[in-house]
Amino acid sequence: MLQEVLTAAVAAGAAVAVYAGVAARVVRQYERGVVFRFGRLREGIRGPGFTMVLPFVDRLHKVNMQIVTMPVPAQEGITRDNVTVRVDAVVYFKVVDPANAIIEVEDYRFAVSQMAQTSLRSIIGKSDLDDLLSNREQLNQGLELMIDSPAVGWGVQIDRVEIKDVSLPETMKRSMARQAEADRERRARVINADAELQASKKLAEAAAVMSEQPAALQLRLLQTVVAVAAEKNSTLVLPFPVELLRFLERAAPAPGAPDSAPAQTPAPAPTPTPTASAQPAFAEPDTVPAVEAGAAEPALPLEGPAAPAPPAGAEGPPAG
Questions:
Q1: What is the pLDDT along the chain (320 residues), one digit of tens a residue?
Q2: In Å, how far are 73, 194, 233, 248, 300 from 282, measured between CA atoms?
Q3: How many Cβ atoms sit within 10 Å of the Cβ of residue 281?
Q4: Cβ-contact 274, 317 below 8 angstroms
Q5: Alpha carbons 8 and 14: distance in angstroms, whole number
Q6: Helix axes 214-229, 170-212, angle to 10 degrees
């Protein structure tokens, strides 16, 4: 009799152990359990830890409550300003209601992925290229709202949406590079012009100061010579001030003036002026005037140009 009791007790214990092994479940800390009994949802969500279910009657579905990182495949679309781009993004979401995540949607991960792709294409068509490149924060918020609206009924909460990359055609990249280069060149020219304006004002002030002290111009000239000589060049350019050139111009003799004072020459002998009783200026070759003794011989007239006319009021030579 005792043996039969022990055998029954051992059999009962074995049955309990088998039942406990079949009915026992362990839910992790980041999971929640949803129990279906004969296909009907039972109230109450099983928390983390050890739990029991009825074997062959209850079914336990574990739902991950962690934040899921889901990459959105690159979507190709045309922006509002007719530019073809490829945009990819990443979605961060988590389950906040395990029961709805199991009941309301067949596969909430696949549903969120498809919703993210369609929303991304919609955002591309509503935005300009400049918004996709520079105003991503606002686009991320709009994309998050578009995905989160239907996901709320699925027991899923969208935590964050980020646009990762925007791929442009090569022609558009070259056009944007030329535009950026032209803008940089324009700003460089404006800066150079502003620098020239400021330099001209400073030079005008320096010229006004130097005009008060002429020696300052000479010191500046010497400083320029020292700066040029420091380069160890074989050719030295020495600028001359305009005042020095004007001084040399004033010191130069006038054109046409003799280089030195003319030498003194003896005055020519006075020419005797004929009178009324004097002999004619030109005598015949066969006529020789009388010469007194001791007197110098008169100079013979030479052939040449006619003698100068007698002064006014003098009588002319007698008629021959």
A1: 677 778 888 888 887 777 777 778 888 989 999 999 888 888 888 888 888 888 888 888 899 999 999 999 999 989 888 888 999 999 999 999 999 899 888 889 999 999 999 999 999 988 888 888 888 888 899 899 999 888 888 999 999 999 988 888 888 889 888 988 999 999 999 999 999 999 999 989 888 888 887 778 778 878 877 777 776 766 666 666 677 777 778 877 666 555 544 444 444 545 544 444 444 444 444 444 444 444 444 444 444 444 445 544 444 444 43
A2: 135, 93, 81, 58, 10
A3: 14
A4: yes
A5: 10
A6: 130
CB 121 within 8 A of CB 75: yes
Q: What is the enclosing helix (H) or strand (E) of 215?
A: helix 214-229
- On whether the CB atoms of residues 91 and 115 are closer than 8 A, the answer is no
The total number of residues shown for the chain amounts to 320
CA angle (143, 149, 150) in 5-degree steps:
115
Task: Give dist(CA 314, CA 320) in Å, integer.
Answer: 18
Q: Quick check: 236 and 221 in contact, CB under 8 A? A: no
- Nearest to 317, CA basis, from 281, 286, 273, 272: 281
C-alpha to C-alpha distance for 123 and 129, rounded to whole angstroms: 11
Percentages helix, strand, coil for the chain (3-state, rounded to 5) are 45, 20, 35
The two tokens of residue 114 are 């498809």
d(CA 179, CA 172): 10
Q: How far apart are CA 124 and CA 133, in angstroms?
A: 11
318, exposed or middle or buried, with CB in 10 Å at 0-12, 13-18, 19+?
A: exposed
| Dihedral sign from CA coordinates of 4, 10, 13, 18 | negative
- For 261, which DSSP code? P
| 226-238 residue pLDDT tens | 777 776 766 666 6
